[in-house]
Input
Amino acid sequence: MSTAIPLVLLGVAVVALIVLAVRYRRLDRDVERILSRLDIEPTSKVASRALYRGVRGLERRLEDAERTRDQLRVAAERADVGIVIADASGEVTYANPAARAVMDGRLGDAVAAARIGSLIERVRTTGVEEGVELDVYTPARRVVRLRAVPLENVPGVKGGAEGAVGYIMDLSDLRRVEAMRRDFLTNAGHEMKTPLGALSVLAETIADTDDSATRRRLAERLRAESMRMASVVDDILTLADIESIATPFAPVRVGTVIDDAVARVAVLSDEVGGQILVGGDGLESIVNGNEDQLVSAVANLLDNALRHSGSTSDRTVEVDVSSDSERVSIAVRDHGIGIPDSHLERVFERFYRVDRGRDRAAGGTGLGLSIVNNVARTHGGSVMVESVAAEGSDFTMVLPLSKE
Output
């Protein structure tokens, strides 16, 4: 199959060349026939033949130029980068769809459009390339890179140009990823530094004391800090595994995932005095995915709910599994302290904490909800949160059902 397609394409190209060759040979014979019937000087016939061949060559070059122009237009029309071309008078002669979306857009886009226009005008006059990076709001914040380069210089006009081309590049996603990477490294360093510092202090204290009771107490704290650091490392490795490795998917029963996740947080549930209630009509649903990752996601939702029940008397966590013909929803509800509205959009970011002091005391790593978000996206689903302060939170992970 892999060799058949190139052979077919080669065959089509050969046929096209043969058709063109036949066409031009017939045209040559017609011209020769006409020239032979004309009563003109031989030198005129030679000149006529030369003129004909020149015209035919120009025709071929014109066809090639039109074909190249059409190819470039299609490429520009489908490009994600905005392209604006202005002539020597500064009038815009071409703008691809990506550029028109900015130039005809809302207020924030209008700022970028005006800036690219002034860049093109200045570059057209000076003949020197320029670029600038802008923050625009449409209404969400976007980072736009504008660049203008001069076209071919006009002969005899110093520093001038026949026109200029401007490029509009949306760097919002790139800058967002860069910021997330910086924040991740910074937060990871802080999360690791805290238990490492505690381990060092505890080890020195144990070495300096002879009291057996004090040593046992410090050894227990030493173990707790080492486990905390191990949890951070495990969560980081889990995130790296989810994002970088294409794990094989297989049919997975949702009820099995819930049971394994509940078992995984059983010790924590006993420690905080909580209970987990599971129900719903979707437990027998089948999803196509990686069972370990799905169990990890649900366990992190349960862990988060148990840890953030606060001082409320009701530490019950409810798991409701519902399904329809296309998807299954796993809702984890707690009756804890809730999340302020201003923090809801950021709770799935790595190491993001609503209240750093309170969250550290709860004992989480700050990576659990980020793992949930990544698992949901890897499986073609999503996760959302609703919360009311002092009443509790509701996290819902939605996954597509298996089509098998």
About this structure: The radius of gyration is 35 Å. The chain has eleven helices and twelve strands.
